[in-house]
Amino acid sequence: MRQPFIHRPSWARLALGRPLAALGALAVALALGMAPAAVQGATPVYGFEVKHTYPHDDHAFTEGLFYLNGALFESTGGEGRSFLRRVRPQDGAVLQSVTLEPGLFGEGIVNWGSEIISLTWRNQVGFRWDLKSFARRKTFHYKGEGWALTQNGKAIILSDGTSSLHFLDPVTLRETRRLPVTADGRPVANLNELEWVKGEILANIWQTSRIARIDPRTGVVKGWIDLSALPEVQAQQDPDSVLNGIAYDREHDRLFVTGKNWPHLYEIRLTAPAGGTP
Length: 278
What we know:
- The structure is a single chain.
- By secondary structure, the protein is mainly β.
- It has four helices and 23 strands.
- Strands 1, 2, 17, 18, 19, 20, 21, 22 and 23 form a nine-stranded mixed β-sheet that branches. A four-stranded antiparallel β-sheet has the order 3-4-5-6, with no helix packed on it. The chain has a four-stranded antiparallel β-sheet with strand order 7-8-9-10, with no helix packed on it.
- The protein is globular.
- The two termini are 24 Å apart.
């Protein structure tokens, strides 16, 4: 573990996770619909403190993550290297694993009752797994891409890389509601890995170093979490090894984040934006 450090957000690093010249950062932010607070002055940006650092498999292309009963459950992507795993957080040891068939690209996962529900990227097929044994129970199909899953105790929530979240019936997996996500009045595209935390939907935004805090009633982004100071973001060389993966331990109020092929998993605590409270 490393000693905790605190990072206060800087919007110029927020768009791509690295320092940019002011003009270039502004152009990128505007193009992505992520204009800085100085321009739009509406959505607060939160910093973070790293409370603990844990090992993470740096060959795991993380697509889905959740915490349950003392363990992390993780799905990875890549044809021929897509796995569903149960992992011990303290040392990163893989306690249980099942491999998807060659040709399938694993994506998001979520627990529901005695099952794990998983997606694939463009294969338009998903699976229901036994939570304990990892035995495959059922196969289901859907249209479009599958990116991520979470749940609020009533519905499954799915992202597909667009600016909308899809609420699904947990039994039939049919869509019951669609939620457009906006920040400062603009659609937020590339919604990726999801986690339900204290009545909010947290969402990674693909290829950025930020997490959106989404109001599940309105779809409005209530705040951004700037993780651009994490070491893997600062030292990133592989453009695919981006921030992706959020898990929440409700019992102990712990929030975890990681990324694709990252060697570390971080437990973080949010710090207040300027003039506000977390």
